[in-house]
Amino acid sequence: MTGFYNNNLDVEQQIIHQELALDSYLKTLLEEMPTEESEVIMPSVPEIKASVPKMRVESKIKEKSETVAKMPALVELQLVPKPTMPLAVMPTWAQYEFQALFFRIGQLILATPLVELSRAIKFDKRITKIPGQPSWFIGLLEDQERKIGILDSGQLILGKGYANKRDLIEQPFKSMLITQDGNWGLACDELLSIGKVRPEQVRWRTNRKQRPWLIGTVIEELTAVIDVKQLTPRRKVKR
Fold it and tell me: Where do the CheW-like domain residues begin and end (predicted)?
């Protein structure tokens, strides 16, 4: 009887330890994340003429970005809070077992549902750098006749302190996660795996007035689950 009691006590202590570790992890993650929202107006690149040859994917990562001198159109880029869902209401994909892509940014392991992504591509194409933009906006990528805004997802999640510690020329990203709408590419260091996640495996954040894109944490792996739709800014072209 004593042994059974001790076993139960050990299990309870492990659960308590895991919960404390999870709370500490989330607290640290939130403290490092940016708190300011920004609104900027950015010029876009001119349309590429048919005579210009399409760029081919190369094996080497480009070290420098192309700077555009004249850009007639304007794009309004806003990093503002998007409407959040009521308490205890989760996205449809979170209510059932879902497939998630696990990826790495620096030493941080993250996960996002596959339904929020269209594809993943290598970070080996030339990106058009737009002057006077937020440091988390890397530039525009012309791909499949679309302009994709490439974002420094590490900086969006961990804040400007992360940007100051990383030189994108010396430490370039390796991959880009393209959002379902095709408007944005989230730069990351490594694509790890695709796995199934059950709702009971995640500690959900039902009150997401702050950091609405941090939807929960996979308890066993201490992996943050990211809602990509809430992480990416709004983009509107002005004529």
Answer: 97-237
What's the whole-number mean pLDDT along residues 14-29?
55
User: Is residue 183 left, alpha or beta, with left meaning phi > 0 and alpha meaning psi from -120 to 50?
Assistant: alpha
**How many other CB atoms are there within 10 angstroms of residue 176's CB atom?**
25
pLDDT digits (tens, 9 = 90+) for 183-228: 999 999 999 999 999 999 999 987 777 788 899 999 988 899 999 9
- Of 31, 13, 24, 202, residue with least CA distance to 100: 202
Q: Tell me the CA distances in angstroms from 115 to 31, 57, 101, 219, one per residue in order.
A: 29, 26, 10, 21
Q: State both tokens at 160.
A: 């400007």
Mean pLDDT, residues 81-105 taken together: 76
In the chain, what are the domain boundaries?
Answer: 33-238
Q: What are φ and ψ of residue 170, in 5° steps? A: -80, -35
CATH of domain 33-238: 2.40.50.180
Strand intervals (E) in the chain: 38-43, 66-67, 74-79, 98-105, 108-113, 117-122, 128-129, 137-143, 146-151, 175-179, 184-188, 190-197, 202-204, 214-218, 223-226, 234-238
Beta bridge partners of 175: 122, 188
DSSP string, 115-184: GGEEEEEES-S--EEPTT--TTEEEEEEETTEEEEEE-HHHHHH-HHHHHH--TTTS---EEEEETTSSE
The closest of 197, 178, 163 to 121, measured between CA atoms, is: 178
Summarize the confidence of residues 71-85 as an average pLDDT: 49
